[in-house]
Batch of 4 targets.
Target 1
Amino acid sequence: MMNKQIAIEDVIATIPDGASIMVGGFGNPGTPFALIDELLKQGQRNLTLIKNDANEASIGISKLIENGQVDKLITSHIGLNKIVIDMMNKEMVNIEFYPQGILAEKIRNAGAGCYGFLTDVGLDTEITDKKSLINYQGKELKIESALYADFALIHAQYTDAYGNLVYGSSAMNFSPLMAMAANKVIVETSHLVPASELTPSHIHTPSAFVDSIVDLALSTHKNKSASI
Amino acid sequence: MDVNKIVKRAAQELKNGQVVNLGIGLPTKILDYISPEMDIFFQSENGILGAKKISENESVDPDLIDSGGAYINVRNGASFFDSSVSFAMIRRGKIDVTIMGAFEVDQEGSLANWKIPGYFSPGIGGAMELAQKTPNVIILCSHNDKKGNSKILKKCKLPLTAKKCISRIITDKAVIDVTDKGLVLKEIAEGLTLEALIEQTDATLIIPQNIGTF
């Protein structure tokens, strides 16, 4: 069996400056806090982050943005983070907004090995450049490209040594999609369990998508959502 | 502004058997006025069908929040899913009713609630897909902004979330239906005169013979 387990310092050190990184989580649940904190410590710069939201001020990826490590955030909603809204208004960080389900679908589409899809969402709004519309089956539709990334940082509730993942309740959100769409998938887990403890029909992300596993029980980092 | 009045009135819109999505802020407070016996599935776009308010004696699952970040619980028959499934549900019209806030609405039923350029741009979130794809879109907002300007306009000025998407507008001063003919006043807040309401509303209101109060 391939050993996917690795020390947090070593796996985060594989991320270069300028990398594009998908980060799981919607608010706190699913946010890989330990992996983010290690990225903050190591200080990689000029990053492009892809996450549903910016977390709340001074929490999660907001720390990376506030620390000037992030050039661009591709996201859906940052309404709960006044610091990042302020940084966006001062042009200290570039924010690219998508409708939440379109962002999810762009990621899922990449995860399925495709190049894009057609949609009518937001056609009457300023997010649509009318020049980008095509006529397909008698309808004016917009082409949305698939969204790939170099890395995905994922938090899973349960992981076995093969890298099968199970997410906790609403912590699933973008994680299974990102785990499919990124070239290298790094998972932190609250519970690294023997494979016999996971039921095959209950696996959310199959092991083939996972490259590296960080066992939070061995890490000095404490997972925020698990410690509340 | 009497927030509870708006929320209480909005709660009356919900019926047994519905699948409902509530936006962040005011709409989420509707849960305070829904009886636990009611058979409603609240969808939260972060991947929950069957969300319910957490009661004081229930333990908190730190992985279980609503789309506004508050800890919640789930009802019998609930399910969890990823964000692509959540929005498949929304774009396929499986949500019966969505109730959300607004910066501006207009008499064509268009909605602006995601961007005030250069000042406050919280982002789109689920609003664009919910507004465009849900059969019944109800807007909950204060009738006027802090300076007294009407939020019910002839034409939205801010960037749109979706065009011609609203079915009903509930404010602290009125309940208004969006129809093909324009905005029809259904109910007026107790103690407010019709003249005062018209004076405080930028949009043209169609005033029928019978108007309720709330």
Note: DSSP finds four helices and 14 strands in chain B.
Target 2
Amino acid sequence: MISIWFFIGIALLVDGVLIFSAGMYELWHPPVHPVVLFSLHAPIWWGGLLAVIGAIYCLKFKPKHS
Amino acid sequence: MALLMAMQVQHLVRLSTIDTIIVVFYFALVLAIGFYLRNRAKTGEDFFMAGRDMTAWVAGLSFLSANLGALELMGWAGSAYQYGILATHWYWIGAIPAMLFLALVMMPFYYISKTHSVPGYLKLRFGEPARAVSAVSFGFMTVLMSGVNMFAMAKVLQIVLGWDINVSIWLSAGTVAVYVALGGLRSAIFNEVLQFFLIWAGALLIPILGLHEAGGWSNLKIQIAQRASEQYVHLWSGLGSFTGNPMGIHWTGIVFGLGAIISMGYWTTDFLVVQRILAAKDIRSAEMAPIIGAGFKMMVPLIVILPGLLGLAVLPMKLVPESVAAVTGAHSYNDVLPLMLARYCGPGLLGLGITALIAGFMSGMAGNVTAFTTVWTYDIYRPLINSKGTDHHYVNMGRWTTVIGVLISVGTAYLVMQFASIMDYVQALFSFFIAPLFGTVVLGMLWKRATGPGGFWGLLLGTASSISMWAWVKVDPSALRYVAMSPHAKALAQDMYQALWSFLVCVIVTVVVSLATKPKTDSELNGLVYGLTQVPSVGNLPIYQKPLFWAGVVVVIFFVLNIYFW
């Protein structure tokens, strides 16, 4: 049976990659009305962190073929 | 996706394409989990009890998640803005002692009796009448509460995102019905654990960035003192009198009403949360699960209370009560979390934050539906309607009850849409049953002299007293000075004292009736009552693997936090 932690890894990895990508896009195309503390570029480091945690979970709990 | 984007009309925040992809991905993932688990819900034990093979971590996080709904997050963030750090009491003294009590004192009885539900335990201990009262009231209230929450969340999605209220109701209800009917409790638990991670991933950035903007905790306290009051950042120092704090409550209400009764009632007897622990794979996991839940529960104020406090300091506008907001068009207290989300989160992060809210709502609803399904099938349908069905028949009944329960919830949501005052009544009704039920269950577990008639009449009259007090204050608001011991008491304070009195009525009636009726023999109470039950050992484990050790760690952190924020 696939572990619940693998599903969580998938969720964090996909969301992390999407958020990281959105942050990188904003780096080159800054928004007209930026959010408060935009200069910290939270989507890049937060999205990156989620993607790394998600990738670790995916690898550690990946389904094994019997 | 086009549907979701088209639904956004007027709103607090606007989702970009990437936000919408994140929300759609969440819906796809929960449905995929439901379809994947459909082959693992063939027997009654699988469908209703998740095969009783959950680890301590999965059961513990699910136990906590079932309570961590979106309305809970937004409501308590709003309360933190309104009452300050006092709202933290509902997460610390209003949860931690009860969770540890469940783990170390009550869980062994639930676990070794192999009951499917809390009403099921009442049947074993007090007989069929007590179970019938508990099961019918719980089943009825659970679907109504689910409907009320469904409407409230659809309303939130309408205000925050501009989504059409009908689409929100049917989309979320349909998704929950599919994944619970397919995978049963296991599917609900898997999605609750997923939700737990998404909530932290989506919400933790707000306090991090907020504290950065406010200049740290010390500066935040100064700003709150300037904009509100110094009492907004003290947990206990203003509770010496009813007028010394923003909530109008005395410390006795917090300690005895909230800490000793309401939270004990909710965390130890509300089947919505207890069901997750009953799915644990062994006695050690069943004891560790609430302790793990307690450890994380202590951290939840970081993503709920702190954003509310930060809103007091950094938001440029002044938030107002819901009733004023409805007239003036200003933002209400309950908007503080979405406002903080919109303040710091751009494309992507906003989608994750909104996903966390939707996930919280859906897993809360799934929790209600799974609990209702189990209580209906095992505590109402099987004993009262059809006791000769096969296991396969009861599983099918569970699947159909899931769909029917969701439909009743949808119906309730539309009823609330027509008659808004129903929401207040239903929420009040739910609180009527919790405190007396705790009195009945705890006496049943700890006092062998308690009898069936004692348990039944105690539960019935305790519940009736709670309803009577509520009706008394509704008809004559000046009665608050008697029920809540102060005319200055706010609604939350009234709940505390109402719970305390109804618990006492339940206990006194149970004791008096029990002493006047014939006790059960010791052999009949084996496995159900303290002193007559050989509580199974968790095994010969190193100290760091023992539940008692981790409960001690939680207690130490609990005291340190309360003293630090005194």
Note: The mean pLDDT of chain A is 93.
Target 3
Amino acid sequence: MPRIKFQTLTEQMFYVLLSLNDECCGIDIMDKVSEITDNRVKVGSGTLYNLLEEFLESGMIVQTKSEGRRRSYILTNEGKDLLNCEYKRLCKQIEDFRKYLL
Amino acid sequence: MVKKNEFKTFHKEFGYFDRTGIQEYLEQKSSEGWALVNKQFASDWDFKRIVPQKLHYSITYLPQFTNEDQFLLSESKNEYLELCSKSGWQFVCAYKNMVIFVNENENPTPLQTDPEAELSLIHKSFLKLFLPKTLCLSAFLMILFFDEFFSETVSKTRDFTLLCCVLLSIYCIFDLLSYFRWRKKALTAAASGIFSKTWGMDKLLSVLFCIITILGIVAVAVNSYLTKNYKSIILIGTILTIIAIEIIIKKIENRIKSKWKKYLFKFASVLIYIALIAFIISS
């Protein structure tokens, strides 16, 4: 079943949003995601650029400054709500797993 | 000074969105000692001689742009290229809204790591670039078909025209259906995090398209001969000549490195066009 936009987040969407809790520019996001996940998750440059455009368009993040060719972004309240929803969904999944398999 | 053997144009047909097919082709060419430098037309690939090596290519689509100039002049281009170069992806060229990158690293992080995001890019590009064109062509064909079919005066090439309309309509429908069929499968795979091989240009469709084009030209030629009215054949001949001149001019232009020589060449090509138009008007 195809995913409905932003109803659930892919792993990469989740970590890109998470790394934008503090103001960050595109290049730093790539490093930050690798750092948070101990290199488990890597976001491709093309995917990151596309995600940033989509998050900006839907108001999940805002651009804070533009220095030369670098633009910085930060999470908005809508973005934080989206992350919280995803967190609750993942918690529910863990709870279900524990209930049935542990 | 550009040596003759250093650059070569290869002709290879691919569907516009056949990302995986194009990647495989470019990687094979690099192992044969050819690196892509430019893409001019739908099926012309300009290469330069290199030492045979394993290069990785990646193709991406930017639906916010409709042609390469829009992308190359955009403000966000530098940010995008910087992001890509961070993981070793170097910009090669852009064609319409397709952007091609190369990477010399052994195991580079792919440019696209999220299949859903990639599908969204392809779909937006499809809706923006291809769907309107196909729908307009279909509408035009329908009008032509019904106009010819219900016309009181039956032209001598009526059957030819009707056949061309039907074949072209079939081509348009198959083209659209093949995309949506592929997209459905790719969406399901992407939800599980799997990238799907892109759909290639159906060989049957390519052959069908060639047959239709030849039939169309023959129909016009026969009609001109039977009615002794050569205006339409002159028109088609002119269009084909302009296309041929345009292709030759582009090919020569891409080989010229010096800026002023390029300007001089552009000026000369404008003069050729003016001469051609003057010839058409006078004849």
Note: Chain A has one domain: 11-101.
Target 4
Amino acid sequence: MRLALWAAGIAVIAFLLLPVLVVVPLSFSAGSFLHYPLPGLSLRWYAAFFASDFWLPALWNSLRVGSASAALATLLGVPAAFGLWRAEFPGRRLAMAVILAPMAVPAIVVAVALLLAFGPRGLANTFAGLVAAHAMLGVPFVVVTVLASLSRFDPVLLRAAAACGADPWHGFFRVCLPRIMPGVAAGAVFAFATSLDETVVVLFLAGPGQRTLPRQMFAGLNDEISLTVMAAATLMVALSLLLLAAAAWLRRPGRD
Amino acid sequence: MKFGSRRGAILLVAPLLLSLLIGFILPIGAFLWRAVADDEVASVLPRSIRALASWRDGEVPEAAFAALAEDLREARARDLETGAGAIARAAARLNAELPGMRSLLPATARRVAQPGDDRARILASGEAWSTPAPWRAIRRAGGPVTDFRLLATLDLKHDAEGGIEQAPAESAIYRGILLRTLWISASATLFCLLLGYPLAWLIATAPRRAQPWLLGGVLLPFWTSLIVRTAAWMVLLQKEGIVNAALLGAGVVQEPLPLLLNRFAVLVAMVHILLPFMVLPVLAVVQEIDPRLPRAAASLGAGRLRIFFRVLLPLSLPGVGAGCLLVFVQALGFYVTPALLGGPNDQMLAWFIGFYANRTVDWGMAAALSVLLLGAVGAVIALYGRLVGFDKVRAA
């Protein structure tokens, strides 16, 4: 019984992990075919990646769009979460539904709607438009994560701060924010990861100047797949690992 | 400003709500409005629509002929000057009401531009003008709203009398697409449940030292980009790919199997991508089950199977419900994975929305299909709220 559960579980984990792990060695192949066994090891596909003006600008742009949209989502999301946590007010449930809506609406609907709305206003094909769109998609993660942190924060501390003469701004920045910082940072990481992963909105909204890694991978996969795509995929796996480690570290037991 | 006050709280939430309103809710609302908006004909033939307002059946009023001639002359002059193509768009819209209008309207516009009696020239440009059908079409397409696109997404249309009938077989494709989308999503959910449920139990009951490793096996793919996982399956399933090589090597098959660009590839990749969304909520619920409960059941003489089916399984159901909801709702909107791994018969609703927006620039149909997709998502969420309720499960 126990053995069967282990066998089934390990098989499922293999199913989850192997496809991701299979791309990694391919990107170090000395040959140019997508199959095993590898004819030898080399870094030629990484050299191609970093020399290419198809891939390299996309990598930088992914990081730029990710950082800017995560910053914007955090800037909007943290005060909102604090407000939602601090006081009951009419329409709070509706506000929560609006904030969570970007999680439930299919990406294709968001993509086409924003293309239609941004196009006539000159925002389609711009960095600002893409950042705004990704910030909207990332904001629910910030709010949910910060709310979870706040639920473990004792509001009595704020009253104590006020009793000691701190005005509400100081109370928030000096007492509350340091305590919920891991949650805020984790929310920002989630928002960054959301932007880094996002493909559909970019496909519809981004012009030649705003290509991101997922967008280029989509184009590369539609074409003849070269091993440079595998190098790009491996870099994205490495980035995801980094983000996963950051999120795990921020939310490790014993913090916040 | 006081943080504790209601007003303070509202002021803190307001910037985000305002941004979401401007950058999310309003654009989606304006886009979805296009599903019912109907202004192509009204902007070209305003006088004709007014002249036909009180007309019901029988003889077409004389004033309508004069109004139509005047409308078309004006619109043609405007089109020639600006190249806007308004008559062509109105004709395309009218064609949805009455086949043949796509060519009849521009032809009539050319005729009435020449001197002579309006009525005679309109009738000369097409026999149909002597029948009520084209006039009825103009009145029906006169706006400001229409249901023809929403009907079209359900393979329905108006007949000449204004009733509702089945669309002709060659254009009746949308019900099939909706059913296909629901079917693929339901299959993916079922497979995720079959694979994810035992894994969640294993992680929950594994020794403390093994737990982080097992959980990591779920979280690493979970954090890996969707496009990377789709790419991985393209590599695995291609003709010379690893799966085929293994099958050939083991002598299971003689020829490489066509594993790509079909339903199988789409489903395997979707299950792979969505599986963590099943495992994590089930795990969150299963971990909270009081370990004394199965022990109590055992001390009362229940066997292992009985403990599982009567105690553990019912207690894990809220997690199963949340997992199924997350997986199914996300599956409904899948675009990238079917587009890359599927054939023409494996594309889901999202692909057709993109097709209408990008290739044919028919925002109306893109919006109508989006209403259908959002309706499906909303129905599933509402059904879940009805059957399970949202307060039972914390977001995992």
Note: The longest strand of chain B covers residues 156-158.
